[in-house]
């Protein structure tokens, strides 16, 4: 008789993660279905196809690239949640980096897996609550949030975020950082319009950093 | 046909159901990870500090996401952008998807969508455009994590360096992007100065932590630097524009 054994935390995470993720995908799909049924407004397939043609080739490719890039950073539990709650590069991944840094835990460890999931979960809950609160209080908050005086603060959120993160991580491994930093800076100065595709360039930066790291590691320079 | 409005009660109900589902998923994962962290020997007090630090860190980016909801709401009403930006999406995905669908339908996002078929087409394109990103994960996750475990068991030192390199690759891409407008004149340097201010503030926090042994500052240093440099970007912009 086959002996049953309790699942490890990692195995249980995969099982629960898959169930939640596939359920979430089904629920997301039900949104346009319910809109179409409720308003009896099924769009012609050709129309949806034309719209998709403008975005799907990029989004579907970036989706695969993002999976390979962010799963190692976020861990299993963090990924199952973060890919459902979205806003990866501008919030979830930096939030995980912040949590690991504050807790002094090395990425890729069992403790990092748990802490990353906690960071993503808390961040998702807080984001949802802030957006919900903002929607409820829209009349009061909109004039403040969209005031010209505050505009520079929100325009500069990424420099404010990545400036501080850079000090933490570049100082830890500056030799590895040189090649991707120089390449990316030169690339964006030469082709500023690439800013819209920064998500696609993240794995390029990662590949460059890994290549540089491998050479330095092989030469015992790290 | 029922009377259509981009801000109908029906659409708010749909948004609320999906958002409640995602909140529940977050709560379930939080409780599991918390128990796991305790079992691994991380103290409850340390976990509370991690949670608080993550919550504070989230505030500014979340407000920026709220701005994205407001931006999209002009054309699509509140419920759909509220839903899309609370789950899966980011403004960088949702705006092009909505624009592509509206353009295909001969409509424009510069005014509120009145036609339910156009609205429905936009909802379909937004969903189908991004849903594969969700579907890939269950199929790729074990393979990617398995590869990482094998890497770690083969060479632990290289595995740690590999993770550092991955993070640095992402940070490099965003740092490079900050320089994109420097050829346009002094105002193009504003993001660079904000980044430098943020970096300097973090270095200062590091010194303060070392000298005065302020433990709590460690948990909030990144958030404090981000919020302070966002605030300082206002006088920097006024000065350089």
Low-confidence stretches of chain A: none
Strand content of chain A: under 5%
Task: Kindly report the greatest chain-chain contact and the residue count on each side.
Answer: A-B, 156 and 154 residues
The beta-strand count of chain B equals 0
Q: Roughly how many Å is the radius of gyration of chain A?
A: 21 Å
Span between termini of chain B: 52 Å
Q: What spatial form of chain B do the alpha-carbon principal axes imply?
A: globular
Order of helices and strands of chain B: HHHHHHHH
- Share of residues in helices of chain A: over 70%
Domain count of chain A: the total is 2
List the total number of helices of chain A. 9
Write down the overall geometry of chain A.
Answer: globular
What is the number of beta strands of chain A? 0
The largest β sheet of chain A comes out as:
none
Q: Report Rg of chain B.
A: 22 Å
Mean pLDDT of chain B: 92
Most strands sheet of chain B: none
Mean pLDDT of chain A: 91
Structure description:
- The complex is a heterodimer of chains A (222) and B (241).
- With 222 residues, chain A is mostly helical.
- Chain A folds into two domains: 8-136, no CATH class; 173-222, no CATH class.
- Chain A has nine helices and no strands.
- Chain B has 241 residues and is mainly alpha-helical.
- Chain B has helices at 9-39, 44-76, 79-86, 91-104, 116-154, 156-178, 190-212, 215-240.
- The termini of chain B are far apart.
- Chains A and B meet through helix 1, helix 2, helix 3, helix 4 and helix 5 of A and helix 1, helix 2, helix 3, helix 4 and helix 5 of B.
């Amino acid at each position: 008789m086959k002996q049953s054994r309790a699942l490890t935390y990692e195995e249980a995470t995969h099982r629960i993660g898959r169930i939640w993720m596939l359920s979430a995908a089904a629920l997301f799909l039900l949104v346009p279905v319910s809109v179409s049924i409720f308003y009896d407004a099924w769009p012609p397939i050709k129309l949806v196809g034309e719209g998709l043609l403008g975005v799907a080739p990029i989004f579907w490719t970036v989706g695969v690239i993002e999976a390979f890039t962010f799963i190692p950073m976020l861990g299993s539990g963090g990924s199952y949640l973060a890919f459902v709650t979205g806003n990866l590069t501008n919030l979830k991944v930096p939030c995980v980096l912040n949590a690991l840094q504050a807790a002094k835990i090395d990425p890729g460890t069992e403790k990092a897996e748990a802490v990353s999931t906690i960071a993503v979960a808390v961040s998702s809950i807080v984001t949802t609550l802030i957006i919900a609160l903002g929607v409820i209080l829209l009349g009061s908050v909109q004039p403040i949030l969209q005031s010209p005086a505050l505009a520079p603060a929100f325009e500069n959120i990424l420099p404010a975020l990545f400036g501080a993160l850079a000090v933490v991580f570049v100082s830890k491994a500056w030799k590895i950082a040189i090649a991707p930093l120089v390449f990316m800076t030169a690339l964006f100065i030469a082709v500023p319009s690439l800013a819209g595709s920064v998500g696609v360039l993240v794995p390029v930066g990662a590949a460059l950093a890994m290549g540089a790291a491998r050479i330095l590691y092989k030469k015992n320079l790290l | 046909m029922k009377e259509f409005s981009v801000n109908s009660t029906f659409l708010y109900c749909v948004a609320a159901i999906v958002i409640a589902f995602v909140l529940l998923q977050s709560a379930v994962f939080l409780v599991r990870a918390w128990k796991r962290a305790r079992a691994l020997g991380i103290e409850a007090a340390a976990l509370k500090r991690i949670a608080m630090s993550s919550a504070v860190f989230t505030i500014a980016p979340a407000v920026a996401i709220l701005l994205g909801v407001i931006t999209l709401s002009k054309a699509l009403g509140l419920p759909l952008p509220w839903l899309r930006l609370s789950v899966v999406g980011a403004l960088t995905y949702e705006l092009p998807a909505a624009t592509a669908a509206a353009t295909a339908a001969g409509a424009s996002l510069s005014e509120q969508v009145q036609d339910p078929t156009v609205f429905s087409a936009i909802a379909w394109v937004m969903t189908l455009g991004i849903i594969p990103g969700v579907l890939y994960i269950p199929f790729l996750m074990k393979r990617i994590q398995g590869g990482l475990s094998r890497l770690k068991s083969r060479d632990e030192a290289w595995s740690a360096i590999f993770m550092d390199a991955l993070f640095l690759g992402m940070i490099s891409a965003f740092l490079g992007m900050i320089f994109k407008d420097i050829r346009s004149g002094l105002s193009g340097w504003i993001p660079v100065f904000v980044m430098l201010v943020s970096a300097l503030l973090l270095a200062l926090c590091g010194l303060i932590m070392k000298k005065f042994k302020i433990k709590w500052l460690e948990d909030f240093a990144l958030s404090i630097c981000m919020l302070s440099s966002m605030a300082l970007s206002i006088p920097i912009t006024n000065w350089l524009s």
